[in-house]
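**Backbone description:**
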Amino acid sequence: MILDEPRRVGLSFVGEGGKLLGIYIVNILLMIVTLGIYYPWGKVKVIKYIASETELEGDPFEYHGTGMEMFLGMLKAVGVVIGVVLLIVGLSYALGEVGAILGMLIYIVGLFLAIPYAIHGGLRYRTSRTTWNNVRWGYRGDFGEFAKKFIGGMLLTVVTLYIYGAWFSQSIRKYIMEHLRFGNITFKYDGDGMSYFLLNLKGIVLTILTAGIYIFWYSKELFEYNLDHTKAYQNEREIAFSSTLTGGALFVHTLTNMLLIICTLGVGFPWAVVRTLKFTYSNVIIEGQVDIDELKNTEEDYKDAIGEGFGEVLDLGSAF
């Protein structure tokens, strides 16, 4: 069915804080019993729950990653890190000061490569393991291309005392979005460094002048900017994203979440997570000529979680 007129696409989160709390409690107990080894399985349980409670057009997403895949990914990442450390120590021992300098260079180069690999590999794994109605997400980026863009942008950001950071972040977001797939749906991002720089400059200045109060309106503008400049295409038909978020609503939401966590001595954290997901999705509008019946699989199944493992080892969290 091809729609002649754009329509609103439903996106929502229907999870419950109590169920998420139960998952957290079991995860903590099993991590204690296994001396932390259970961590990958626990993380996967949380991801699976959040995916299964996220609904598009009334149907849930599914996450197919496993604890074993993530565990093996972390083992590989730790193995690489240990190998690099042993190489550095060996060079220092064998060549003295020259070896120490070489070791430091290897460490710097390794770190510069590890961060983009964690982002690239993590995206490839996490998207491939996520489906909706048996339609798989995917990420088609090339690591060499992405690494050049990331490392070059990071160096320019450092050299320019973070001024280039706006152009860097927009370049990376554009690359990721334009290599993202949801079945046969493609994505585009048209944000630019200058407008993003000015948006951040205004936000930082006003946040300072208002003793931090403007941070909620600043965050709202960033959220809005990223959505407004994102488009998706299904067989050349455009799907647009926009936001209904307001600074005042974000202020109230953040304040009540903080009070919930503080007043319950942390027990209310799962409810805060659920509230945030519901709040976020309720403020996202997806509208276009979307034909669910035309969605079809185009992406390969990718099970190597080493990129995800590097993300854990480098403590990148959900930054990507």
Q: What stands out?
A: Residues 192 and 273 are 31 Å apart (CA to CA). The first helix runs from residue 17 to 33. The chain has a mean pLDDT of 94. The two ends are 35 Å apart (CA to CA).
